[in-house]
Amino acid sequence: MSGTGRGTGRVEAVCVVHAERDSGTKRVPRTAIDKRPVDGPVRIGPAGLTGDHICDTEFHGGTYKAVYAYQQDEAQRWESELGRPLPAGWFGENLRVSGIAASDAVIGERWRLGDGDLAAELEVSGPRTPCGTFGVWSGEPRWVKRFADRADTGAYLRVVRGGLVTAGDAIHRVHVPAHGVTVRDLFTGRNQEGLAAMLEQQPDLSPTVADKARRRIAGRKVQVEY
Is the pTM of this model over 0.70? Predict the structure, then answer.
C-alpha cells in the first residue's frame, strides 16, 4: 500500500525521563530508561521531546531514534505473561500508543500527531534492539532474549515536522510506503524481497537500518546492540 493510510490511533501517554539511574552495566554506567508520563503539551523537535534525554549516545537518540513508541496491546501481552503492571514509560518509550501498529508499522510510514498548525509529523525509522540495560531495568530473567524472540520491538521515529503532542491526541497515518516492510520484518529478517525493494525505493533510510537490511538479505548476522 502506498499513499495515505487509513485508520487512526491515539497517544495514550507522553513520557520523558523521570530520573537517571545506575544502568547496572559496565559499558554505560548511567541510564535514562526511567521514563514516566507527563501532563500537558510537550514539544517535539528534531532531537525528540522537550524534557527528555539519553545517556547511551552510541545506540540511542539521534535523528533516526528521536522518539520511541510502544503499543498498548503489546505492553498488555507482557503484563499478562509477567503478572505485573507495566505502566506507560516502562519500556523506555516516549509515546505509549493504541489503535495503531508500532512493531508492525511500515518503515517510512508517517504519523501526524493531533490536528492543527502545531501537529507534529513523525516517520517510522526502525526497530528497537533490546540492550543489557533494558534487561537489568526489567528485573526479569533472560529478558533481552525473551523480548527479542517475541519481536514486539516498538518503533523508533524521526521527526519530519516538529510540534506539540499531548496525551489523548489522535495519530493519523498520512503516508505508507509501497514496499510494505514492517519494523518486525526488519528485526526478524523475513520478507527479503520487500527488504530489497525498501533499499531501492527509500534512499533516506537510517544508515543503521540500511545496513541491517543488506545483512538480512545476505544472510549475515546482525549486530545486537548490547
Answer: yes
